[in-house]
Structures are given as C-alpha cells and as structure tokens.
Amino acid sequence: MQIYKLNDQINLAKLMQKLNVDKPGIEIMKKKHSKYIFYIKGISCGAANILKQDALSIGAELAVPIGVPNCKNKIFDALLLCNQKQLEILAKKELSQPFKLKEFAKQLKEFINLPKFPLKIMGVINANDDSFFEGSRFQGIEAIKAIEKMIKDGAEIIDIGGVSSRPGSEYVGREEELRRVKPIIDEIYNQKLYDKAIFSIDTFDEVVLEYALDRGFKIANDITGLENDAYAKTVSKYGASAVIMHKKGNPKDMQKNPFYENVILEVDDFFKERIEKAKYFGIKDIILDVGIGFGKRLEDNIALIKHMEHFLHFGYELLIGASRKSMIDMIMRRKGMQTTPAKRLPGTLALHQEAVRNGASIVRCHDVAEHFQALNVFEEIRKFDV
C-alpha cells in the first residue's frame, strides 16, 4: 500500500469518477473542502472497510470503488479526505489496526506539519556554448559580471555548470568540463565571491566537484542523484549540500518515449532510495529536485509541479527548475503558437509561481531580477491575511 498527497485544488469529482465511486457518494464528497487529499494505491478490501469506518467516525471520508463493502475486488485504489485534526487522529488510530494499516499510519504521520522553508533564488551560469538557452551562456570575465549582477538582483545561490544536459546532448568528458568551469571557479575564489552568495556546482563528476568544493562552493547539484559512490564520498568529505535530482534515462535519449505508471510514486521511491544512500555516506544537507524535463512527458511535469507538496514529507527543501524549458512550448502549441527559449519567460514565471505555491523553496532560473520581483510579490499576497 502506498499513499501520496494530492493538491487540494484537484478536480475531486473527476478523480472519483475514475475510481468508480458511486454517484451519490461523489455528490456528497465533492462538496467538502478537505485540506488533505491522499491517493491510496493498492489498499486491500479488509483495510479499506476498517479505514472507512474509522474515517467516518471522526468526520473524515474514504472514497472507494463500487462493491468494496462486499469485497468484490481484493485490491484497489481509494481516496482519503481529511483535515489536520482528523489526519492526526487517523495516524494514531490505524497503528493498532490489521491489514497493513500500521504501515499506512506511519506514512500518514509524515504529512503532519509539513515543513516550510524560506524562498531562495538560484541563478544559472552556463560555461559552455551548447546549453539550450543562449542567454545563460557566459565565459571568463563576462561570467563574473553576470554573477555579480545576479547577486545584486536577489540571487542567494549561483549554480555554475560546464556541460549541457538538454535532451539529446552528450557528455564532453571530464577534462573538457573542468577546462570550461576552472577559470570561473578560480575567479570566484580569488575575489571571494563566496562571501556574497552560496555557490553550487552543476556536475556529476567527482573530480570537477572536488575542484569547486575546495574553492568555496557549498552545493553539489547532481542530475544523476548521487548515482556515483565516489561523488557521494566527495560531498560528504566537504560537508556540502547535495541536490538529488530525479531523471529517467540519460540526456542523449531521456525524452524518447518516457513512461510512468505513476510519476509521483516513482519519483518518491527514487528519493527514498537516494536519501538512504546519502545518509549512508554521511551527507546531512539534502535538497530534492523532481527533475522537470528529465525523462518526463508534459503530463508528468505538470503532475510533479501540481502535487509537489507531497515530497515535503521527506523533510527537505524542494528545488524547482523549469526555467524556459520545452514544456512551455508544448503547452503553447496546444494554443496554436510556438515559442523559442528566448520567448518563454512569462511561462517560466507561471510554472515557478505554481511550484512555490505547492512547496518549492529554491527556484533555479535564468532571469533573477524578474523572478525576485514576481515571487516576492506573490509571497506578500499569499501571506496577507486581512
């Protein structure tokens, strides 16, 4: 049995129809506004009957397919609808119940009082000439000028990368990657710019990583999600933070017909495995990145942004990086329009605002000043309570 938290603004009636909930039940439950909506995958008939009784006894709801009370189907999916207090009660109550409800209760407990983190903007500097957005490419003194401007514009973190990971790209090798980023890293170190901002190195190579960490960088941004043991050891050695990103496949072929039965649960399982690995190597500071555009269909990217709050149950900051990506063009093509990366700032701001609404706290972007203004206005509106 697995659960994941859904955005509370989801079309509840439509989802219940897909689950084959009876029509009278849909009419009753769709009118209730529940702060917590959990999709339960693979619940047994016995567990569902107990959970439904316990939920109803405290005013919560369990939406199940037609025929469940008579155990017509042994395993199926369901929806739990509850508020904060009801969640706390069920997380305790189900600990004493059979049919794997004890494990279910432990999962529920992780969603009580989800953490909140302060918003940070991460500016992107690409020290290569083949990144998908030309406006992010800088070298030498121009890179330093761009970094200083990003810091002035409101970036707390600067992410430096020397190779492209766009769909279809191929790795250029360690020597070439280091050749590209070394002058920038050296200048950051010489000018002590690490006193003005936190620097992140976007690499999956442990040698490039160590070169950066040894010169004041604090974050290891790894698109492979700590796949390499030597890389994990290096992160631990320097006490750096690790960005664990999910991707399916390699950049060269990752967008060739990717498929997920359930993208939320698959990414969740990946994070669980890699967080355990990080802890094994002694890595304490972790940031999670769902990997927008890395082996994902448009519907997968949208689902991950819409239900991003689910991943806060791990207790770590969430990074969103959808800046000027092709999913914006995919959406606009449905409207009969095409966009190039240079024309995708408005779409980027919309995606990032929605991600922040749903739990993201680190926004990786090319356009720092625009994001600083838009997201701070958004945050001010959101917290206004009069």
The tally of helices reads: 14
Indicate the CATH architecture of the largest domain: Alpha-Beta Barrel
Number of strands: 12
Q: In CATH's first tier, which class of the largest domain applies?
A: Alpha Beta
Look at the structure and name the CATH superfamily of the largest domain: Dihydropteroate synthase-like
What is the percentage of strand-forming residues?
15-25%
Strand order of the largest sheet: 5-6-7-8-9-10-11-12
Largest sheet, strands/sense/barrel: 8 strands, parallel, barrel
Helix content: 40-55%
For the record, the count of structural domains works out to 2
Distance separating the two termini: 42 Å
> What's the order of the H and E elements?
EHHEHEEHHEHEHEHEHEHEHEHHEH
Shape: elongated
**Which runs of at least 5 residues are low in confidence (pLDDT < 50)?**
none
Summed over residues and divided by their number, the pLDDT gives a mean of 93
Examine the coordinates and then state which fold CATH places here, giving the name of the CATH topology of the largest domain: TIM Barrel
